[in-house]
Amino acid sequence: MSFKLKSLRSFVKLSFILFLCRRFSESSDKGWFRSLFVHKVDARKDAHSNLLSKKETSNLYKIQFHNIKPECLEAYNSLEAEVQKRLHQDQDYPCEVVGSWNTWYGEQDQSVHLWRYTGGYPALTECLQKLNNNKEYLEFRKERAKMLISRRNQLLLEFSFWNEPLPRPGPNIYEMRTYYLKPGTMIEWGNHWARAIKYRQENNEAVGGFFSQIGDLYVVHHLWAYENLQTREETRNSAWQKEGWDANVYYTVPLIRSMESRIMIPTKISPLQ
């Protein structure tokens, strides 16, 4: 009998505690206690491509990664430079080279190209149709194919809060930091970086920030320019001396599945030198 009475008392106590917890959490919508029981997430009202990209432009970007046979790297650079120059200067094609690099540290014997299509997807379609009818370009592709091991690309939009990637004089080295995010976290990433980018502007190192639309999804590319590796080290360390930078790192790291850093050297004709 005493055992049943003790069990009943324990049950009553537990029920009363749970009742108080619910009442307290209901009356403390913004309090810390409610956060232990309720995880409130604002419903998305639009696609992250519309919420995070620049509204004043309709630019679409394409990034290409070409893995080249080591013995062909010099010939590849010469051939690519000739074709890029023609396309860049030909007003009949609605595309332009933003930057072109060879990877220095990271995946070796790799070339990275960033293109801008002014006018978005219609401009991309127009450009591809014209190139597919350009016999000279088709011959270039055949010749280039002999030099490649593999290639891949992505279509990107630029974050609204990043700098527009404009031509700049050199000499510089460039770092492309690529973040593979957990699906569904792009809005949260953008919200944090919209505040954090101000900590990385003092030395004019911020070149551009992009997120993928087609290809590998939930991928972010941040592009930075530095005078050399030592300047890169000093610039990155100085960010930690600014109040607020540590919080940005703290809140964005859990959003990342994996990340990659490339140190790149611009090719001779790259607008970003």
From TrEMBL:
Keywords: Autophagy, Mitochondrion, Signal, Transit peptide. It holds the Pfam family NIPSNAP. GO terms for cellular component: mitochondrial matrix. The keyword Mitochondrion applies. Residues 1-27 form the signal peptide. Belongs to the NipSnap family. This is NIPSNAP domain-containing protein.
